[in-house]
Amino acid sequence: MIATFVATGVDGLAFGLLLFTVAAGLTLIYGVMGILNLAHGSLYLAGAYLAAGMADGGLPALGLAVAAATLLGASGGVLLDHLTRPLTGDQGHLSQALVTMGLSLLAADACTTLFGAAPRPVPPPTVLDGSVHLGAMGYPVYRLAFIIVGAVVAVGLHWMLRHTTTGMTLRAVIADPRMAAATGIRPTRVRTGAFAVGGALATTGGVLGAPILGPAPGIDTTVLALSLVVVVIGGTGGVLTTLAAALLVGQVQTTGVLAAPLAAPFALFTVMVVVLVLAHRTSPQVRLR
Amino acid sequence: MSTSHLTRIRATAPTGPPRRIVGPAIWATAVAASAGLPWLVDGYTISLASNALILALLAASTHLVGIGGLPSFGQTAYLAAGGYTAALLAQAGTTGAAPHLAAGILAGVMLAVATAPVVLRTRGVIYLMITFAVGQLAAIAVAKSTLLGGDEGLTLPPMTVPGLGELRLDGHLYLCVLAVACPLLLAAGWITRTQVGLRWRAIADHEPRLAALGGRTTRDLLTAHLLAAGIAGAAGALLADAHRYIGPADLGMDVACAALLACAVGRGRLTATITAAVGIVAVRDLLGAVTSGHATALLGAVFVLVAYQHLLRRAPSRPAVAPPAGGRR
Amino acid sequence: MHLRRGYLRQARRLTTATTVLSVLLAVAGCSGSSLGTDHDRRSGTIRIGLLIPQSGVYKVYGPEIKDGFQLYLDTHGGKLGGHPVTVTVADEGDGKQTAVNSGKRLIQSEHVDVLVGTTTVDSLLGLQSMLAEAKIPFVGTGGRASTLKDISRIWHTSWLSREPGAAIADYLRTTVNGPVYAIGPDYQGGWDQVGGFTEAFTSAGGKLANDGGKTAWTPWPGTTNYLPYINKIAASDAKAVYAFYAGAAATAFVQQYAQSGLGSRIPLYGYGMLTDESLLEAEGTAADGIQTVLDYASDLDNDANRAFAAAYAKAHSGASPHLFHVTGWDAALLLDQAIAAASTGGATPTPEAINTAIGKVGQIDSPRGTWRWSSQHTPIQPWYLRKVAQDGRGRANVVVQTLTTLGN
């Protein structure tokens, strides 16, 4: 029984880190611009389909797919930036939500039309295929590898935000955009940068996550909903809170269903409500009116 | 509460002949046209019109909290309360339209009383996600409940109206939905123009300022929350009776999403929100029926167009690039 | 604060909206009123409404049903029972909500004489009362819930959702040397499918490996990670697993089952949809060796299937037909015979007459073997055990043996 929980806990870690990769991008865009990018799940899906098209069982193909996805996600982010940029004013948030939602619906339809309704296969690279033993349990090697990659991404992002000029600029804009602008930071450039990095994180997450959460219709909504949960639980405080939120959601979705199968369908939303009610007693200023 | 602030708002609002004549005239025309529909179109189209009215009510419910700065993604929970209450009543032998409606509204409000302590602690995006959770939890709960028919939902006997007997034809059901929806929508429109309605908008604009002026903002929002839940409960009762069925699929994420998007298109104006709700049903179900499964793409394109159409109208008065509004918490 | 600003603009907008809507309604509605029940029946043509998923999670099966139905029409001069037919297709979507709208359109706007199609049990649950009121026959091509009350106009060329599990239960009880683990998605389709298995299995003395003998239900929809559940299987004393999943969930389950390394230790059995031909490519090597129960396999050796498979391959550049091609084909085959029997003196039969004739159709010479109606209005048909293996062209479900014949 303990072995089962250990193996499942490890799996929750992998799933949580996958969520972190995607949600970190969403948090970045939300933090810098206050925009909830509802097309974020579509970017993940695009990355996953990219992986399905390029994967051939070798590591070089995976590396190439990651590079292509970074490019695709960054350009997607820049495009979204330009599309949402004119939508400002007191109703700006509404228009941004409408546009990103509309685009995600269009993208979902385009994906099913282009790639069909059947889920697409994304086999992990051959060297990472197969399973290892965690106690008595078998566990996919690829997911273990993903844990390492996810951890590297998390550490890298944290380091970038804490110790580089880019990161400090970003934090300054997140903390107080007007003050940041007054100190000579150009908000539009920061904005474009955040969108590009956020988009690239989502598509890269899609490529690396495809063997775990593969491309199929509806995956965009699943990923978006889970990432939104991570963003609201984690807030825009920094990489560490997002990471904590993602790992929590990952454990709820894995160990949670093992420990309390009957409560499993309710678990995610109940945990979210409890965390939000405990953590956010004050009224945040961002509104989606 | 600073009444002088509100008086000033009222004073600046134009109150000339246009409002007195055009507004009611438009409403009267719209209602007359809607009332004549059953004689013009077939059963399928009229049932879509019923669906449009029900979604309009749900959107109006979302609108009531929305103008107070609370973007709700979970009004379907109160719709469920109303709908399932009506269904249980009908299965127990009470098939009258009026008891269903009254019980539906009551059930919606009662559920809202229960959720208020949780959801009204939050604002903005957090509120959005909390209400999303409430709506999803309600959908999961009914799907798990054997009393409520689980995944299969509940089937109702035909509803009865005193003097008319059982209503079976879609045209009659539609007229019944219309007869309930019109006064409710008008009432929703009226309440947003009263003192409390103005305070909701003021809360959305700057809650701390209103609170500093002595406004009991949470109490005002509670009013909006309860009224909105009542309207959603009514919509649920109508839905159960019009479809003679209610199930978890009626409270899906797509329904909540459609209501919220109607509000987003409406931008704080109830007539526009209602029109948007009707438009969503028309595009998704009426036009979507001939696009072989591409209805959602059509809806997506419409959302994008609406967002930019609004921009075109405002473009001259606003700078093309403004500093970011900023996301801060 | 723009409370009262722009009333004229608002008025204009509302007028525009009303006009646009009226035009839309006028165009779409055209005929008649919704306050009466009668409508003119054009004679000569039989109108068929085909309700199939064109969007949503089961989208992949929609074209299969349609192609099967169309293949029959194309190979039989476009006529059913000697009458020309028009086929109107509508979207079933993910189930209930879209299906009810589309069904309503077919019945009340297109005035179809027969409604054909559906994949999920959900769709029919929403359509029940409408079908009863319209008094037209419904020929189903997908799952049938065990909870329908009035089946006087409901016929399925497919199966009862509880049958596949019941068909394989005895085989697993006698061949597997130990307890079997049962798992499936937590909704009506899953309860029927897995329930059919567990009931037949345990009542014959089989032992479930699940905790407390209770089937493991996974939240549906929305579960994408099955490893926690698979870990539980690994921790049990199961000697085999019986699973029901369809579509993307089936792919995820099969892949993760193989990835967890359990595939070589505990053999996986399931309902045919688990390794449906449309999923085999995505499932890849993970599907190899999985054994499933279904009422069809494209390599079945009988005359009707050879002719059907050849006709299908000719029309679709050499491809093999799948299960839903067969249920679609059989729906057309059934209607062909029923409509022919119902049209006395060459007149176009009424939906009521077609319905009566459907019930009187004797044997259907289907590609899956000959079948006739059970008391439940579903086929009395043989069930086959199939195994995923290479068949020369790629992975396929190859028949291992005939399990049993079900229905009464």
Q: Characterize the largest beta sheet of chain C: strand count, sense, and whether it forms a barrel.
A: 9 strands, mixed
The 3D shape of chain B can be described as globular
**Which stretches of chain B are poorly predicted, pLDDT < 50 over at least 5 residues?**
1-17, 315-329
Cα radius of gyration of chain C in angstroms: 24 Å
β-strand amount of chain C: 15-25%
Beta-strand fraction estimate of chain B: under 5%
Distance, first to last CA of chain B:
27 Å
N to C succession of SSEs of chain C: HEHEEHEHEEHEHEHEHEHEHHHEEEE
By helix and strand content of chain C, what is the structural category? Answer: alpha/beta
Assign the CATH superfamily of the largest domain in chain C.
Answer: Response regulator
Largest sheet of chain B: 2 strands, antiparallel
Assembly of the depicted chains: heterotrimer
Briefly, what CATH class of the largest domain in chain C? Answer: Alpha Beta
Total domain units of chain B: 1
- The secondary-structure element order of chain B is HHHHHHEEEHHHEHHH
CATH topology of the largest domain in chain C: Rossmann fold
What does this structure look like?
The complex is a heterotrimer of chains A (289), B (329) and C (408). With 289 residues, chain A is mostly helical. Chain A has one domain (2-279): ABC transporter involved in vitamin B12 uptake, BtuC, CATH 1.10.3470. Chain A has 11 helices and 2 strands. Chain A has a two-stranded antiparallel sheet with strand order 1-2. In chain A, helix 1 (2-33) runs parallel beside helix 5 (141-163) and helix 3 (59-84) packs antiparallel against helix 8 (187-209). Chain B has one domain (21-252). In chain B, 60% of the residues are buried. Chain B is globular. Chain B is mostly helical. In chain B, a hairpin with a 3-residue loop joins strand 2 and strand 3 (165-166). The model of chain B is unreliable at 1-17 and 315-329 (pLDDT under 50). Chain C has 408 residues and is an alpha/beta fold. Chain C folds into 2 domains: 46-159 and 302-377, 3-Layer(aba) Sandwich (Rossmann fold), CATH 3.40.50.2300; 163-294 and 385-406, Response regulator (Rossmann fold, 3-Layer(aba) Sandwich). Chain C is 41% helix and 20% strand. In chain C, the strands form 2 sheets. In chain C, strands 7, 8, 9, 10, 11, 12, 13, 14 and 15 form a 9-stranded mixed sheet that branches. In chain C, a hairpin with a 2-residue loop joins strand 12 and strand 13. In chain C, helix 5 packs parallel to helix 6 (188-203). The chains are: A mainly alpha (289), B mainly alpha (329), C alpha/beta (408). Chains in contact: A-B, A-C, B-C. The interface between B and C is large, with 70 and 59 residues.
